[in-house]
């Protein structure tokens, strides 16, 4: 059963690749490299901004969680310390 699915998936991937490859070749033939890269600048700018926001939010959250963990750990250590009396 798994092998049948694998064959089906590879056929779909082959057809998709052939379709994409044919489309790229057609664009290059009709419009050249300028036509192929048209609109790439705004997309790259959008992706860069989106990635920067994601990275910023991840790092901010990570640091907030780390600070809270360290604060709670320090409070827990203070509560555990018991003064030793000579007696």
UniProtKB/TrEMBL annotation:
Solcar repeats lie at residues 1-64. This is Uncharacterized protein. Belongs to the mitochondrial carrier (TC 2.A.29) family. It is found in: Membrane. The keyword Membrane applies. It comes from Glycine max. Pfam families: Mito_carr. The keyword Transport applies. It is a multi-pass membrane protein. Keywords: Membrane, Transmembrane, Transport. Gene3D superfamilies: Mitochondrial carrier domain. InterPro entries: MCP_dom_sf, MCP_transmembrane. It comes from the Eukaryota. GO terms for cellular component: membrane.
């Amino acid at each position: 059963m798994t092998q049948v699915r694998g064959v089906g998936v590879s056929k779909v991937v082959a057809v998709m690749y052939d379709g994409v490859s044919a489309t790229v070749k057609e664009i290059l033939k009709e419009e050249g490299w300028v036509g192929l890269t048209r609109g790439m600048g705004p997309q790259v700018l959008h992706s860069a901004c989106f990635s920067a926001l994601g990275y910023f939010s991840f790092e901010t959250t990570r640091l907030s969680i780390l600070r809270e963990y360290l604060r709670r750990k320090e409070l827990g250590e203070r509560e555990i310390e018991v003064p030793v009396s000579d007696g």
